[in-house]
Amino acid sequence: MTNPSLPIDSARGRQNRAYALDALRGFAILAMILSSLLPEGANALPAWMYHAQVGPPHFEWSNLAYGITWVDLVFPFFLFSMGAAFPLAFARRMDSGGPKCRLALFILERGFLLAFFALYVMAVRPGVLSKHPSAATWLLGLLGFALLFPILTRLPEKWPVAVRWGIRFIGWLGAVLLLKLVRYPGGSDFDLDRSDIIIIVLTNMAVFGSIAWILTRNHLLPRLGILGILLAIRLSNMPVPAHGWVTDIWNFSPWWASWIYKLYYLQYLCIVIPGTVAGDLILQWTRQPASLPAAKTWPVSRLATITFLMFFFVLELLVGLKSRWLVPTTLLTFALCGLGWWLLSKPGDETERLYQRLFFWASYWVILGLFFEPYEGGIRKDKATVSYYFVTSGLAICAFIGFSLIIDVFKRRRWLQLLIDNGQNPMIAYAGINNFIIPILALTGLDALLTRWAVTPWRGFFQGLFVTFLMAITVSICTRLRIFWRT
Question: Of 152, 283, 352, 368, whose CA is between 20 and 30 Å from 131?
Answer without folding.
Answer: 152
